[in-house]
Amino acid sequence: MNKLHHKDFSIAFKTGTDANKSKFKKEAVQGEMYFATDSKNLYVAETTAGASDATLAQFDGGASFSNTYSVDFDGTDDYVSTGLTTLVSTWSVSAWFKPEFTGAGNYFLTGRSTQKRLGMYYSGTTYIDYYLRQSSSPFNILNVRSTDLSVLTQWNHLVWTKDNATTTVTMYLNGSQIDQDAGASSSASDFYPEVIGAINTSGTFGFKGKIDEFGWWDGTALSSSDVTAIYNSGVPDDLSSYSPTGWWRMGDDDSGAGTTITDQGSGGNDGTLTNGPTFSTDVPS
Amino acid sequence: MSRNYVIIDASEVSSVDFDQVLETSPETLRFSVDGTKTFVKFEGETPSFLEGKTANTHSEMLEILAGEEWTDPNANP
Question: How big is chain A by its Cα radius of gyration, in Å?
Answer without folding.
Answer: 23
